Amino acid sequence: MSAKKILAGVRVIEMSHVMAAPTCGLMLADMGADVIKVERLPGGDDVRKLAPFVDDESAPFSMMNRNKRGVALNLKTDKGKAALKKLVEGADVFIENYRKGAMERYGVGYEQVKENCPGLVYCSISGYGQTGPYADKGGFDLIAQGMSGLMSITGESADRPPVKVGAPVTDITAGTLGAMGILAALFHKANTGEGQFVDTSLFEAGIMHTYWQSAIFMASNELPVAMGSAHPLMAPYQAFQTSDGWLNIGSANQGLWQKLTALLGVPELADDPRFQEPKDRMDNLAALVDELTGFFKTGTTKAWQQKLEDAGIPAGPVLNIDQMTSNEQTLARDMVQDVGSSEGSSLRVLGHPVKYSETPAEITRRAPGIGEHTAEVLAEFGYSEDEITEMKKAEAI
């Protein structure tokens, strides 16, 4: 593609590990920002050690760090710390997701750098945010899912063990929120020249996924519970078992409910006092599911999906990851792309989830090897060839 990228010319230093900040950085990198991932020596990001591997390259690491350049610094050395500070102060954006206080020890806390670079947008993604009684705690997706209330509403029912969302949803959402915050801060900077501190967390990322359930509780004082695939406010809106799998059906409002009963040949269900209105159907959800499951088990997922869609009722199969990544809509939206390994083997990653008519996102670079671009980046930041050689000898890079 030859179109100008929406964030072309924006330089981002990403001091990151695992998932939240790397998600933030990859969103910006896909939009054209020059994202430079800084890893600590020795070892780098722990995700590099996670299987499966393609040509000795971690597939999880490759997924989270495509489109970035890589710098590796030994931050136990003065030269390594000085290099990090020079990179941060020469950037438009700095992203980090280390425990509170780590950046200050490296000399690049917000208060330590903002005087020399008042236009810097500094984004911190942590477990609980930089303020409050939990600010010093570390952050993990599983813990955040539990603390945010998400695990209390995920699973089959209230009398079953708590279940987390299958994906690390607070990590991914916190990274996406970080990118949103950075874009807003860059807009403010474009208008005023002023940078700022952007602070979000896994905890808040989890809380925001409870919009429906929190609304219910705060208005009624009724405590929402896990409901499997069902919805807390409307029915039938959940997965039903078919003869060969599962099918999600979104017959959520009165018009769709009446279409469904007509399609099934049981219009009397629409007049059944247990199911007449949305509240009636929610109050009698178990009975409703029993009534409908018998119908859907008589046919295949594909056949029922076609019938439902022909009748104007939203429906879709429950796909596994293999089926999703090979789905025609997934491919039509460029949501699976092959970046290749360093040895030329196929290495697929997920594509950028937003499409832009004038400034399309693009994946052009595989994830970097550890320190792959250190010399190149340091030279761009004013280091001479001799200085870079000295840093190598001192094991600072």
Question: How would you sum up this structure in a few lines?
Answer:
The chain has helices spanning 20-30, 59-65, 78-89, 102-105, 110-113, 141-147, 169-192, 202-208, 211-220, 254-263, 268-271, 278-283, 285-296, 301-310, 321-325, 328-332, 374-380, 385-393; strands at 11-15, 34-40, 53-54, 57-58, 68-73, 93-96, 121-126, 196-201, 237-241, 246-250, 315-317, 336-338, 348-350. By secondary structure, the chain is of the alpha/beta class. The protein folds into two domains: 11-209 and 326-393, Crotonobetainyl-coa:carnitine coa-transferase, domain 1 (Rossmann fold), CATH 3.40.50; 237-241 and 246-317, formyl-coa transferase, domain 3, CATH 3.30.1540.
Could you explain how this protein is built, in words?
This protein has 18 helices and 13 strands. With 397 residues, the protein is α/β, with parallel strands linked by helices. It folds into two domains: 267 residues, Rossmann fold; 77 residues, formyl-coa transferase, domain 3 (2-Layer Sandwich), CATH 3.30.1540. The strands form four sheets. A six-stranded parallel beta sheet has the order 5-2-1-6-7-8, sandwiched between helices. The longest helix is centred in the middle third of the chain and has 24 residues. The relative contact order is 0.14.
